[in-house]
Amino acid sequence: MNFHISIPELDSYRNCDCSSLKRIYCRLHLLLCKKCEAKLSSLKESDEFITSIRKNLKNDEV
Ligand SMILES: [Zn+2]
């Protein structure tokens, strides 16, 4: 595994937004690479963070 998955690639993998070949590559790589697995989970965390901010903003509007 010479090439790590870039953040935009992880993002499209996460959103099911890439070709099936790429998805297989990403899945395999994520099984073997703790670094990229960590990047993917930090993407998820920031997603949850943004979602919670959005919720708070909505509450303020109401
Ligand atoms: Zn990697």
Task: Give a nutshell description of this structure.
This protein has 62 residues and is an all-alpha fold. The protein contains 3 helices and no strands. It has one domain (7-61).
Poorly predicted runs of 5 or more residues: none
Q: How many separate domains?
A: 1
Find the structural class using helix and strand composition. mainly alpha
Largest sheet: none
Beta-strand share of residues? under 5%
Molecular structure report:
- With 62 residues, this protein is mainly α.
- The chain has one domain.
- It has helices spanning 7-14, 20-32, 34-61.
- The longest helix is centred in the last third of the chain and has 28 residues, at 34-61.
- The structure holds zinc ion (ZN).
- Residues 4-5, 29, 33, 35-36 line the site of zinc ion (ZN).
- Zinc ion (ZN) binds at residues 4-5, 29, 33, 35-36.
Topology record:
Elements: H1 7-14, H2 20-32, H3 34-61
This protein binds zinc ion.
The site of zinc ion has 6 residues, from helix 3.
Search tags:
single chain, elongated, binds zinc ion, 62 residues, 3 helices, mainly alpha
